[in-house]
Amino acid sequence: MPYSTGVKLVLLAALLWSLNGLLIRQIDQAGTWAVLFWRSAGMIPVLLAVIWWRSGQVVAPLRRVGWSGLVGGLGLVLAFGGAIFAFQATTVANAVFLFSASPFLAALMGWLILRETVRPATWGAIALAAVGMFLMVREGLASGALAGNVAALLSALGFASFTIALRWGKLADMLPAVVIGGVLSMLAAGLVLAAQGDTLWVPGRDIAISLSMGAAILATGMALYTAGSRVIPAAELTLLSMVEVLLAPVWVFLALGETASAGTFTGGAVLMAAVAFNALSGARRRPPAPVLGVGN
């Protein structure tokens, strides 16, 4: 695949993912767990079709992920559920800026769990990112959106856990592990709803939006990102994926007039600067195999 085609695929994936917040804003009654169930239900068939199209098999690729795929799938339950709650409980800008902390959390977890070396420049970027996150969480506390901000950070932690699980298992293909994460998400959502005495049968419009998010936004974006990432260095992937973070607040502003506070954008700008600095400082190094981006 030519490099230019890879860039287009990754940018298209980021564009699709940037619509998640806007679509969740269209849901009227369904709560986090119902949205998680139906979004996962829409995602799984599309990813299975992509896996079959690429390898001619379905069961074997799922088996190959082993324990690392299961651990990564559990991380995705936290990532997906936290992202949905964050979009419902805070501004889209708050949520997507905090999602972008995932690479730094992954670096810390890799250092602690896998004994991976962290570059001095990355330590500096982590410190800068911590300042940005502090500004945003403080803003959330002041505006009554602390729960949404915490959920966004937990979502970033879930994606970081998924990343570490893939590195631990040395898995180059993330899609089978994402399928497992979708299945586990459906199980977790069903159990929580049953324990709460709630139902999956929310209004049909909410179900349709959730299914479309899973199939057309999340799964299709992951398939495009995975294909494009094969010819793009990880540092450039990080920068291209920032398109999602930059566009998501734009869509909700244009469609719904939703804005965020100056504190949110100040903290977000600091966090984005940390992400960009870390990516650019590592551009000349041979990076590890690319994994899932910010898409939620």
UniProtKB/TrEMBL annotation:
<feature type="transmembrane region" description="Helical">
    <location>
        <begin position="65"/>
        <end position="87"/>
    </location>
</feature>
<protein>
    <submittedName>
        <fullName>DMT family transporter</fullName>
    </submittedName>
</protein>
<dbReference type="InterPro" id="IPR037185">
    <property type="entry name" value="EmrE-like"/>
</dbReference>
<feature type="transmembrane region" description="Helical">
    <location>
        <begin position="150"/>
        <end position="168"/>
    </location>
</feature>
<feature type="transmembrane region" description="Helical">
    <location>
        <begin position="175"/>
        <end position="195"/>
    </location>
</feature>
<keyword id="KW-1133">Transmembrane helix</keyword>
<feature type="transmembrane region" description="Helical">
    <location>
        <begin position="207"/>
        <end position="225"/>
    </location>
</feature>
<feature type="transmembrane region" description="Helical">
    <location>
        <begin position="237"/>
        <end position="256"/>
    </location>
</feature>
<feature type="transmembrane region" description="Helical">
    <location>
        <begin position="262"/>
        <end position="280"/>
    </location>
</feature>
<feature type="transmembrane region" description="Helical">
    <location>
        <begin position="35"/>
        <end position="53"/>
    </location>
</feature>
<feature type="transmembrane region" description="Helical">
    <location>
        <begin position="121"/>
        <end position="138"/>
    </location>
</feature>
<feature type="transmembrane region" description="Helical">
    <location>
        <begin position="93"/>
        <end position="114"/>
    </location>
</feature>
<feature type="domain" description="EamA">
    <location>
        <begin position="5"/>
        <end position="137"/>
    </location>
</feature>
<keyword id="KW-0812">Transmembrane</keyword>
<keyword id="KW-0472">Membrane</keyword>
<dbReference type="InterPro" id="IPR000620">
    <property type="entry name" value="EamA_dom"/>
</dbReference>
<dbReference type="Pfam" id="PF00892">
    <property type="entry name" value="EamA"/>
</dbReference>
